[in-house]
User: Which sequence fits this backbone?
């Protein structure tokens, strides 16, 4: 079987709804906090929360799959959870900021869950393995990319920093390898992948594992 001729696995594993809602809730908090830091009104805070939580799926489905609207606009639970995250963040942002460690852990769980889910959706749509890895990565990190663009900041995704997108890419590849070539069930492969992504992301935060710039232009000689 050639690399691009795999069978879809979209029906083999489904992330529990409660876990997905938790991931949307946490990503919504990070988007709402970004809006608060920019001094936005309530509409702006909610909009950033929505984009951060669901933007990755919008990019994936719009650019790669083109198979109906993304889940965040078809499943009312997701919209309600993100709205709740925005409201609670606006009301209790001082307390939310103190929960940075907890949010980082749940965000790491969400990164792995969305990476797996994005790969599944992409494979089910008939995409090749490289395109499915791209789809999973976009699902996991695309919301943050859109958030930064909307607030006119240089996207964190493009700058040297703690492992994030790199972890998502590795998780997408790991899930495909485990589910396709290790003999493990897709459910076991997904659980292992989410655990691995979460662990690596937390370790990157704990030990400040970072990417580095490919090239730094040397300073111009003084006249």
Assistant:
């Amino acid at each position: 079987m050639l690399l691009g001729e795999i069978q879809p696995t979209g029906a083999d594993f489904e992330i529990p709804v409660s876990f997905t809602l938790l991931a949307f809730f946490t990503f919504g908090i990070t988007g709402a906090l970004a809006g608060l830091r920019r001094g936005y009104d309530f509409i702006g805070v909610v909009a950033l929360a929505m984009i951060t939580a669901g933007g990755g799926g919008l990019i994936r489905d719009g650019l790669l799959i083109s198979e109906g609207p993304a889940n965040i606009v078809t499943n009312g639970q997701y919209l309600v959870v993100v709205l709740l995250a925005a409201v609670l963040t606006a009301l209790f942002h001082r307390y939310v900021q103190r929960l940075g460690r907890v949010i980082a852990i749940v965000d790491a769980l969400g990164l792995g869950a969305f990476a797996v889910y994005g790969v599944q959706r992409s494979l089910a749509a008939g995409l090749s393995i490289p395109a499915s890895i791209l789809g999973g990565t976009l699902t996991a990190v695309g919301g943050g990319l859109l958030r930064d663009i909307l607030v006119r900041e240089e996207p964190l995704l493009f700058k040297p920093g703690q492992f994030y997108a790199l972890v998502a890419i590795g998780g997408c590849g790991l899930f495909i390898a485990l589910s396709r070539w290790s003999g493990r069930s897709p459910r076991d492969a997904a659980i292992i992948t989410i655990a691995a992504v979460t662990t690596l992301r937390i370790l990157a935060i704990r030990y400040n594992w970072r990417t580095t710039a490919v090239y730094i232009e040397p300073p111009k000689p003084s006249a």
The chain has nine helices and no strands. The two ends are 62 Å apart (CA to CA). The longest helix spans residues 100-124. Residues 17-207 form one domain.
